[in-house]
Amino acid sequence: VILRYRCKNGPSVPVLVVFSLCYDFIVNCVTLLSPHDSTIYSDNTLTLSGAYSSMMTGRVGSKKEEFARMKQHHAAFAANSWDPSFLQPEVRVCLILNRFTRNLVIMYASSATKMLFNIDPEDMVGIPLLIFIRSDDIASFVEQADTAKSTNVITHLRFWFQSPHLREEIPCEASLLGSADGM
């Protein structure tokens, strides 16, 4: 969503606000848009040159499934009152990473890590995320993370997660949102 935030001294600035439903809560990331990254038109539409990754990989599932899921979420949010039973949220894990570390140390892990990875969230905090990623996926993951750290780009990638408590690797899809204080 593109919004204009009003500054303390009066003028407003354009920001890109990204929301993600992360199983049992909503994650929000706000990025200040530079006039060099975007063009705002009078009808509040925006052309973004720096908000999407050129390295974005494919979606999980078909486009038809993705659009059906999007329509279901839209219907739930359009209702006058929120009915959580209307949606069956996917199990999603939220990790907040220290963007100032090369190996992306986990600063916060949501409770869904227990359901998806069979790891207690407290046991993940302080551990580098990269030790959980399959070795042949690390280079592309680090490349995407570096892109998200250095620009207003939202990166999207697939990788295999290796849980120490499960035999099989878990196929994952991630959106990396870089902000001043974390990822």
Structure commentary:
The strands form four sheets. The protein has a three-stranded antiparallel sheet, with no helix packed on it. Mean pLDDT is 75; it is low at 38-60. It is α+β, with helices and mostly antiparallel strands and 183 residues long. It starts with a strand and ends in a 6-residue tail after the last strand. The radius of gyration is 18 Å and the shape is globular. The chain is built from four helices and nine strands, in the order E-E-E-E-E-H-E-E-H-H-H-E-E. This is PAS domain-containing protein. InterPro entries: PAS, PAS-like_dom_sf.
Q: Kindly name the structural category.
A: alpha+beta
For the largest beta sheet, what order do the strands appear in spatially?
Answer: 1-2-3
The number of helical elements comes to: 4
Number of strands: 9
Low-confidence stretches: 38-60
Helix content: 10-25%
Distance between the termini: 19 Å
> Which sheet architecture does the biggest sheet show?
3 strands, antiparallel
Helix-strand topology string: EEEEEHEEHHHEE
Shape: globular
Overall average pLDDT: 75
Proportion of residues in β-strands? 25-35%
State the assembly state of the protein chains: single chain
Radius of gyration: 18 Å
InterPro entries: PAS, PAS-like_dom_sf
Protein name: PAS domain-containing protein
